[in-house]
Amino acid sequence: MTVLEDRGWAAFTEEGPWALQRDAIRWLPLAAPLRSAAQAEVPGLTKAGRVPPGRRVVRVVRTLTRAVVPWMVRKKRGQYLTPEASRAEISLRLRRAAEQLGPTYIKLGQIISSGEGLFPPELVGEFKKCRDQVPAEPFDVVRVVVEADLGARLEDVFSSFDRTPLAAASIAQVHAATLRTGEAVVVKVQRPSVAGLVRKDLRVMAWLAPFLVGRIPIASLANPPALVELFAETIVEELDFRMEAANMIDVAAMLHELGNHGYVVPRPHPTLVTRRVLVMQRLSGFNFDDVVGMKDAGIDTEEVVRTAMVALMEGAMVYGVFHGDLHGGNLFVLADGRTALLDFGIVGRLSGERRLAFLRMMLGATTNDVKGQMAAMRDLGALPADTDLDAVIKDLRLDQPTVDPTTLTGEELVAEVQRVVKALLGYGAKLPKELMLYVKNMVFLDGAMARLAPDLDLLGEIAKISMMFAERHGERLARELGIDPTAVELNMDGVKAGFGVDTDTEALTYRELQARRELIQKRMRDHVSR
Fold first, then answer.
1. 360: in domain
2. How far apart (Å, rounded) are the C-alpha atoms in residues 15 and 13?
3. CB 184: neighbour CB atoms within 10 A?
4. Domain coverage including residue 216
5. Residue 448: what pLDDT?
6. How far apart are CA 206 and CA 51, in angstroms?
7. Count of domains observed in the chain
8. Which class for 217: exposed (0-12), middle (13-18), buried (19 or more C-beta within 10 A)?
9. 222 and 367 housed in the same domain
10. What was the pLDDT predicted at 249?
11. 50 SS3 class
12. Can you tell me the distance from the alpha carbon of 137 to that of 129, in angstroms, rounded to the nearest whole number?
């Protein structure tokens, strides 16, 4: 194979099974109207009706009741020796209930599994099993879907097609195959009944959500109806693989335009993409958790993390597009140290004013402009449009010197968290889809750093990345925001405040940050368990 011309506009591998001509891709023009139609469907799917939406709601309620009620009874009787044991039991029960209820709830579990630091570790650990332990569809079912969507017998398109999938998830499963023309590919096949079932389940979730408000702790923090809407906005775009293939094109083009050479995207096939079937280039490399393998191969694991951080920030701030579901199963590291991105069903898109609002929020964080950050979050939809920003800053005590959380007792830490949550709920705060995806990705990279770069100086890296941004994009971003680029100055005090450390702190490794977090979490657990 020779170096392909599509490397001139996209972050693909130097060699590949085919070259893509953007204007000639058959399915690409369909993606934008399909995406608009999918989002237009969300309000109807998430509108809470007065009447239970069909027989499906009976099964959902029965399954969740069987999962939760025995745990509640045992907890009330004091049968759990520790809070950890209680959380482990309910997490196990919820994971089993999700598997019984099928694809929609498994997908919800997979999203939770990427939220280390956002959800209890026991819940995250259980739902990680939903990533690669979902029962696969029988091969006969896979054959029917592929042949129906491609309009040809399997043997007429592929010279070989592995009957056993490489992985099976909630929406689809992937198989290794070889085209009749000799190219090694991966074929993603949607479960045949998943689209209809997801829509039924979203209506069930929308009907149930109002009943959960204030009834369980996690719901009182999260606003269940808003969470259902957020989940719906995410999952409806995964039900048509033509949108996913277009996401691959958009992210590959974005990475190339930004000059990010540390990432590659597999090429989708120019014609073999339909609503339920996606044929793409087959790549291979190190599992993202295989630190030993990467280091033995001479790969700089700190650079792998650094590349991921820069790509996420640049994509969101400069281009308004970023991979929305980073986790260990969605990327691996090639032998040359570059990272291959997989699974583009969820992609964050910040267009127009929302991208500029996100940009202002990030700029405010690096210049310690608290009111600017709050205004940007309001414009992103995290706060209502009529929010009194000065009142928010005062109530959250953002105008006061940072208090090192490691100096607080467990009782003080719990009280502070409760105070902040109560204040945010009082102002009607919520987490917009794009911001949720970005935060979730940052949480994943935080965990990746623990494995790949525990001794990386976080403060030093933030300073270097900020300088890089100023050099590469400063003039353009300043022009878009209507500000003088020479007047923008990095203020590390706000960054240090975000980590909860004193302003005179010179360096902070991830290992040191993790030790601080563990101390804080221990004090809070000890207080709660009294």
1. yes
2. 5
3. 14
4. 37-134+201-231
5. 87
6. 11
7. 2
8. exposed
9. no
10. 97
11. coil
12. 17
Contact criterion met (CB below 8 Å) for 107 and 235: yes
227 and 360 both lie in a single domain:
no
The CA angle 304-309-314, to the nearest 5 degrees, is 125
Domain for residue 209, yes or no? Answer: yes
Q: 90-109: per-residue pLDDT in tens? A: 999 999 999 899 888 988 88
Q: Which residue has the higher pLDDT, 281 or 414?
A: 281
Q: What single DSSP character describes residue 457? A: B
Q: Is 225 in the same domain as 372?
A: no
Beta strands 172-179 and 158-161, pairing class? antiparallel
288-308 as b/e: b if 16+ CB within 10 A: bebbeebeeeebebeebbbbb
Distance, CA of 350 to CA of 347 (rounded, Å): 10
Q: What share of the chain is helix, strand, coil (3-state, %, to 5)?
A: 60, 10, 30
DSSP letters, 465-476, are HHHHHHHHHHHH
Give backbone dihedrals phi and psi of 339, rounded to 5 degrees, phi first.
-105, 130
| Residue 119 pLDDT > 60 | yes
**Residue 214: predicted pLDDT:** 59
Task: With respect to residue 362, please indicate whether it lies within any of the assigned structural domains.
Answer: yes
Which amino acid is located at 435 in the chain? L
- Specify the DSSP class assigned to residue 403: P
Q: What is the mean pLDDT of the chain?
A: 88
The DSSP bridge partners found for residue 322 are 348
Quote the tokens at residue 392. Answer: 């928010």
SS3 339: strand
**Tokens, residue 190:** 């949607």
Q: Identify the three-state secondary structure at position 382.
A: coil
The amino acid present at 83, given as its one-letter code, is P
pLDDT in tens, 254-309: 999 998 889 999 999 999 999 999 999 999 999 988 999 999 999 999 999 999 98
Q: Are strands 263-264 and 339-341 parallel, antiparallel or unpaired?
A: parallel
For the beta carbon of residue 421, count every other beta carbon within 10 angstroms: 13
Do the beta carbons of residue 372 and residue 416 sit within 8 Å? no
In a domain, 2, yes or no: no
The answer to whether 45 touches 236, Cβ cutoff 8 Å, is yes
Q: What is the mean predicted confidence (pLDDT) over 222-248?
A: 89
Res. 118 pLDDT band, cuts 50 70 90: low
Residue 127 amino acid letter = F
Does the pTM exceed 0.70?
Answer: yes
8 A C-beta contact, residue 200 and residue 53 = yes
pLDDT above 90: residue 364? no
How does pLDDT run across 29-54, given as a tens digit for each residue? 999 999 999 999 999 999 987 788 88
Give the pLDDT confidence score for residue 110 in this predicted structure: 80
Strand order, beta sheet including 263-264: 263-264, 339-341, 331-333, 286-287
pLDDT at position 116 = 66
| Amino acid residing at 181 | T
The residues facing 173 across adjacent strands are 168, 189
